Sequence to fold (223 residues):
Amino acid sequence: MNEAKNDSDGSVTWKKIFYYFLQGLIIIAPVGITLYIVLWLFNTVDNILPNIIHTFFPRVIGVDADGNLKKIPGLGFIVVLLLVLIIGRISSSFLVSRMVDVLDTLLERTPGIKFIYTSIKDFLEAFTGNKKKFDKPVLVSVDAPGIWRIGFITQEDAAVFELVDYTVVYIPLSYALTGITYIIPRDKIKPLSNISSANAMKFAVSGGVADISEHLPESNESS
Fold:
């Protein structure tokens, strides 16, 4: 009897330890991963300017005993950030906009480079600027009647594919940076007017784990 009781107590103890471990992991993992990504991004951007300067002017920035570039931490990040802000500010001027248009045309017509440049440009413009694409969340039925996926309208019209009354929809995959593009009949699409595009993307990528109810408009919650 005593041995059975001890085994039972030990089992409960190990369950508690495992539970506490999972609770700690839930708290630490998101914070740790976020900090790691932020620091990685900071260091990557911070190293851009010193590396460029050292490549063209190797005597300006020396190296230490370990062969690493001598630099002031954070200075490269600030300079790159200011440079991006300045370019964004002056991009609307006539002279700069013409230069950008000429460079844009040149890169779009250069074999090999064209594919890389246009892909990156279209991807960034899909999230920012006047050409945002992932700002129209919808529900789409692509698997079977009554089964719905969360997606985003990227093209209202699919006439270029000789499909009438069809719409191009991008559907993100859970826990991934990829997705699938579908050309779907309009009658199988339901707009999500009560959910923002950011919350819809978060819900889809998280596999439905993210709680977006608290971000819904009060009028919808009360109805």
